[in-house]
Amino acid sequence: MSEDDLDRLVRVFYGKAREDAVIGPIFNSHVSDWEHHFALVRDFWSRAMLGTSRYKGAPFAPHLGMNLRPEHFDRWVALFRDTAQAVLKPVAARAAIRRVEHMSAAFQAGLFPLDFSKQDPAS
User: Fold this and answer.
1) pLDDT tens sequence across 58-95
2) Pairwise CA distance, residues 77 & 22, whole Å
3) 3-6 LR contacts (CB < 8 Å, sep 24+)
4) How does pLDDT run across 87-117, given as a tens digit for each residue?
């Protein structure tokens, strides 16, 4: 996987995501400078997949307060999976998909903590 592959992945994915009925409105209402967003996300993926040190942020914090729901993550992963399989070589696509699935689970665990007070006491 190369930096050019990551750039193509980010641009194709967000092209689809911005038009998507489920997650498009969220992206379009929270991102005003798409070129800046592309660069930030590309740097994130460069760190995640290539081990570079360009990305210095914390990806979870910017997603707080966006009123995200589990179905948003389901759609995000599905679009990402389709995009990765279309634009990356199979080995790179599988690695990127594993990473995004892990990120989705981690973000959801942070955003939607289990509320044990609502569980049936018999369980």
Assistant:
1) 888 887 878 899 999 999 999 999 999 999 999 999 99
2) 12
3) 3/42, 3/46, 3/50, 5/87, 5/88, 5/89, 5/92, 6/42, 6/45, 6/46, 6/49, 6/50
4) 999 999 999 999 999 999 999 998 887 655 5
Known binding-site positions for heme: 37
Q: How far apart are CA 118 and CA 75, in angstroms?
A: 27
pTM: 0.86
Q: Tell me which residue has tokens 């990806």.
A: 59
Helices 3-19 & 34-45 angle (0-180, nearest 10): 130
- Domain ranges across the chain: 3-112
Task: Indicate the CATH number of 3-112 among 3.20.190.10, 3.30.70.1020, 1.10.490.10, 1.10.1760.20.
Answer: 1.10.490.10
Annotated binding site: 37
